[in-house]
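Input sequence (145 aa), recorded before submission:
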Amino acid sequence: MNARPLQALLVEADQAGTFYLTASDLDGLRAAAGDLGFRCVDIDLAGCADKAGLMRHFADAFAFPPYFGHNWDALADCLVDLDWMPAEGYVLTLQNLQDLRDADPADYTTLVSVLEGACEDWREHGRPFWAFLALPDDQFDALQS
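Predicted structure, token format:
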């Protein structure tokens, strides 16, 4: 990924959302976000095959407050209220989603829905919040077909 066009896109809050990309694109994405002063949160879900593990990963990566309830509603609430980690914008990257997707497709679908809701909420407030789901190149190619 070329950093300049990517930076120009990342600052557009009205374009922010949940997107798939290849794992090989992550370094360029992180560099562009960092240059803009965005907070990058990387979550590697290798071996995560259930909702409880997913919630732990998010709680750790975002340093959620102690009141985080480890459920879908609490995840949605915390993702739209990041007062404890202020930034010009946010970029979330998720890697190795296949274990969760294979073990529990419903939880995977719910996760994507929660992320899309968070992106929409941040768009309404004029601040970019991007969620990128990184796939291996062969899975990304199959998704594009």
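Checked by second reader. Helices lie at 3-10, 26-35, 51-62, 72-79, 98-103, 105-124, 137-144.
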